[in-house]
Amino acid sequence: MAEPILEVTGLVKHYPLTRGILFKKQIGAVKAVDGVDFTLGKGETLGIVGESGCGKSTVAKMLCSLERPTAGSIRFKGEDITKLSGRALKAVRRDIQMVFQDPYTSLNPRMTVGDIIGEPYDIHPEVAPKGDRRRRVQELLDVVGLNPEYVNRYPHQFSGGQRQRIGIARGLALRPAIIVADEPVSALDVSVQAQVINLLDRLQSEFDLSYVFIAHDLSIVRHISDRVGVMYLGRIVEIGREPEIYDHPTHPYTQALLSAVPVPDPEAREHRERIILTGDVPSPTNIPSGCRFRTRCWKAQERCVVEVPALAVPDVFRGMSGPAAHDSACHFAEEKQVVRAEGETQGE
Ligand SMILES: Nc1ncnc2c1ncn2[C@@H]1O[C@H](COP(=O)(O)OP(=O)(O)O)[C@@H](O)[C@H]1O
Ligand code: SF4
Ligand SMILES: [Mg+2]
Q1: Which atom of ligand 2 is nearest to the CA of 291?
Q2: What is the pLDDT of residues 51-62, one digit of tens each?
């Protein structure tokens, strides 16, 4: 992996659950993020995938310093940014920008596109002097594939895909080093999703960006990600390079998610094994002991109840160099090819 730009260690966000109005008493906690570790290499794209409610947006907000972690550290270029305040905090917020999920609600309907994209310059006037802003904004519109003459239009005059381009232009305004994109295409039509992903892909090399790309579906992040982490109930349960996760998953949860990914090729679809998970995702206020996936895992055994599996190369693969030897938090990790790779036929 390239030199790390972001190193996340033991990241935790617990929201207190309180009862009472005058005398608030803490009765528990929503363990939204419960011990997340990963590294992002410079120029790399890390996909983070998991079902709704597993803590993806909370991780995103902490990376962008919009929420303070309960515990853990986030090192940006070697410096822990979780305890910064004042000027230093302001500076790092410039370097790590977020692109939000919903282009319909994240843009202020009463502001022109020019004001929306140029708003970050109000907070960081050092990036673009007042007289230069209009030109900068028009440049950004051009970069994201919109007509620079649209600068005085309002959000409702654009389609969903165009609005997400506006959101991306705004994210680029301060020339960040990292963009955290929180489900940037989930609200868009399937036909538009690929265009926005291709745009992000192009901008990455043009602006020398590193990406954390969040999605709830493994198929969306596949082609843009160098590595992918799979989240379940506040933790990453498996992480590896793109082919390791898609073609050699070893964690039962990843295997189940992959078995639900749409497969366009009817022949491959026929040979795919569907794994249907039973039961609901447990509440983040009441996380199961041992392996947090055990209440839905078809392989669970006694050991899974008592022992928390570490996110590491499982014992069975230790010392091996193949694609199955990547981090997977499972006591009984086994390689299982769920989706046949493109071009592969049966019997190969
Ligand atoms: N401010 C908050 N207060 C209490 N609980 C929260 C708060 N924000 C998020 N949560 C809870 O934390 C969990 C993770 O939420 P989130 O990070 O938004 O998940 P995701 O983005 O994966 O859907 C959910 O159970 C959610 O209800
Ligand atoms: S540790 Fe046990 S419960 Fe958890 S994923 Fe592995 S087999 Fe399933
Ligand atoms: Mg979310």
Answers
A1: 4
A2: 999 999 999 999
Choosing from 330, 334, 335, 336 the residue with most ligand 2 atoms within 8 A of its CB, the one to mutate for a pocket test is 330
144 alpha carbon to ligand 1 midpoint, in Å? 31
Reported as half-sphere exposure (CB side, CA atoms, 13 A), residue 286 has a value of 6
| The pLDDT of residue 345 is above 50 | no
Contact 212, 48 (CB under 8 A): yes
Range 161-176 average pLDDT: 95
Give the model's confidence band at 12: pLDDT under 50 very low, under 70 low, under 90 confident, else very high.
very high
- 215 and 258, same domain (yes or no): no
| pLDDT at site 348 | 33
Angstrom CA distances, 89 to 7, 180, 191, 234, 291, stand at 17, 17, 38, 25, 36
Do 287 and 205 share a structural domain? no
Nearest to 117 by CA among 174, 60, 65, 195: 174
Mean pLDDT for the chain?
92
User: Does the pTM of the predicted model rise above 0.90?
Assistant: yes
- Check pLDDT > 80 for residue 269: no
Closest residue by CA, ligand 2 atom 3? 294
Distance CA 97, CA 320 (A): 38
Q: Is the pLDDT of residue 239 over 80?
A: yes
Ligand 2 pocket, mutate which of 235, 289, 293 (most atoms under 8 A from CB): 293
| 29 C-alpha to ligand 1 centroid (Å) | 11
- Domain assignment present for residue 338? The answer is no
Closest among 229, 262, 238 to 334, alpha carbons compared:
238
Q: In Å, what is the CA distance from 137 to each residue of 147, 173, 199? A: 11, 8, 17
The domain of 294 spans 247-328
Q: Is residue 206 part of a domain?
A: yes
Q: How many domains does the chain have?
A: 2
Report the pocket of ligand 1 as residue ranges, CB < 6 Å: 15, 30, 32, 50, 52-58, 284
The alpha carbon of 48 and the centre of ligand 2 are apart by a number of angstroms equal to: 20
267 and 196 within one domain: no
Same domain for 56 and 114?
A: yes
Q: Please tell me the predicted confidence (pLDDT) of residue 346.
A: 40
